[in-house]
Structures are given as C-alpha cells and as structure tokens.
Amino acid sequence: MLFASIDIGSNAVRLLFSNVYLTDNGDPTASKATLVRIPLRLGEDVFKTSKISEERIEKLIKTIKAFKLLIEVYKPIAVEACATAAMREASNNYEIIERIKNEADFDIRIIDGFEEANIIRASNNLNFTNEYELTMYIDVGGGSTEISVLRNHKFISCQSFNIGTIRLLNKKVEKQAWEELKEWLSEFRNDFGRINCIGTGGNINRLTKLYGNQIDNNINFLQLQFAYKQLKSIPLNERIEKMGLRPDRADVIVPAAKIFLTIMKSTGVESIIAPKVGLADGLIYRLYNQYK
Predict the structure, then answer these.
(1) How confident is the model at residue 129 (pLDDT cuts 50, 70, 90)?
(2) How large is the average pLDDT for residues 36-60?
(3) What is the C-alpha separation between 223 and 78, in angstroms, rounded?
(4) Distance CA 248, CA 48 (A)
(5) Which of 173, 164, 159 is nearest to 251 (CA)?
(6) 104 CB neighbour count, 10 Å cutoff
(7) If you average pLDDT over residues 94-104, what whole number do you get?
(8) Distance, CA of 261 to chain centre
(9) Which pTM was predicted?
(10) What pLDDT is attached to residue 41?
(11) How far is it, in rounded angstroms, from Cα 59 to Cα 250?
(12) Closest by alpha carbon to 61, among 89, 43, 86, 42?
C-alpha cells in the first residue's frame, strides 16, 4: 500500500512516497519508493526576521504545486503534510497556509514540537538490540531538536528545544536553550552511561556514512568527535568539492555534530544508531495506522 507525506522543515521540504507492508510477524514496515528534497531554507528568514520572505513563500508554493502533480501521478492511498519549527515561529505562518490552500489547493498543518517528536518515534521499522532499559530518540533539525524517551519500549517523556542547525549557523541559539536541554536531560541521570540512542535526520545519516560504521548504521562518540573537528577545520567549498556534500548539507552538518556531541557528553551515550528515518517516515506510519 502506497502512502505519501510532506515534511516542511527549516532547512528543506521533503516529499516521501513509501510502500507499507506487513512482515512475517504481522508488524508493518515501510519501504521508500521515492524521496524528493528541495532545500528552501525557510529557517534562514524566520530566525533572522521572524517571518518568511515573499521570495521563499513563492518558492514554497511552487514546490507544493510540483509535489501535488507527483501525488496525482503516483496516486497514494493517503497524504499528509506537516510544517515544523520555521513555520511554527514565522509571524506570517497562517497567511502562508492560506496562500498554499488558495493557490495550490493543498492543506498544510503546523505541528508543535511534542507532536513532531511523537511522529518521528512512530517510525517503528528500527532493527536494533535494546541493550539498556532507557532508549532516547533524538531528531536534530534546522530549527529545533526533538527528544523522546522510552523505558522498556514504553513512552515516558519528550521535549522540544529551540536548538537547530540553521539557528546555530545564524547565531540564534540562546544560552538558556542549552541550559534547558541539559537540565531536562539531567532528569535521567540515573541512566547516564546506559542509554540506547537513536539519531534521526539527514545530518546524522551523513555523519554515520562518512565516519561511522555503515554496516550497523551507528557512530560512536570518538568517531563523531573526530568528524566534528575535521569538518570544522575544512573550508566550506572543500566540504562540497572534495567530500561530495551538497551545499545545503555542507554547512549544517557541523552544527548538527555539535548538537549530538553535546547530548552525548551530557548523558554518557557511547554511540548513536542512525536508521535513516525522520518525520516524513513517521507520517507514513501514522497514515497507515489511520487507514487500517
């Protein structure tokens, strides 16, 4: 069964088509059919001026129109489109939602950080061994970082922090945000050093591919620390030309590594599993559960 989802993030807008099927034990799993990613960088406007510029609004509307055409061709069973941090904070967000509705005839919904964290956690095709009781899901985006915590597979807490890669690039992360992050993490101090950690988002996937263990899709603290120091020392143009990073990935990958390292240092997490899932994948699972 084919489903589609749209993730309007602070760095990029993604359209995902995925086939959902049942495994031998009856659990649903998703297989990506097509992913289209457009790096609109909505967050660059919002975190500087608190609103999205007319130029980027027009690009967003064109993107949604193009996505709509693809959806009409693919004919998925259901579609859901959600917008996250940049749209949450944009002073003209509801004006943009109305324009997309009127000009592209498409419905977009803005979700808060808690719902975003829960949707990401719903991406349940994760094959890993629960070595410890506590599992932490970390999604680092352009505008925010969402963390969900489970104990013995049961959800216990989640939080969203205004710490993201685009914010860091534009020096828009307040010291208080880092303090709030560390204070919240301290609630789990009894488990420090004994936490399963799942990292989602394009940056941790790329860091794992470049510096981690590709077979097991994980990257340990020393590997990530080395990656951060090396990438930070390499000029942006060399990250693009010599390392093959996309221009819209080459700059945000360094602050992303910093965010993950900060969380790992604070919690004693030894390694991060990067299963290559995110909000768009979680939306697919939610659509399937609603459909069934």
Answers:
(1) low
(2) 97
(3) 40
(4) 18
(5) 164
(6) 18
(7) 98
(8) 16
(9) 0.90
(10) 96
(11) 22
(12) 42
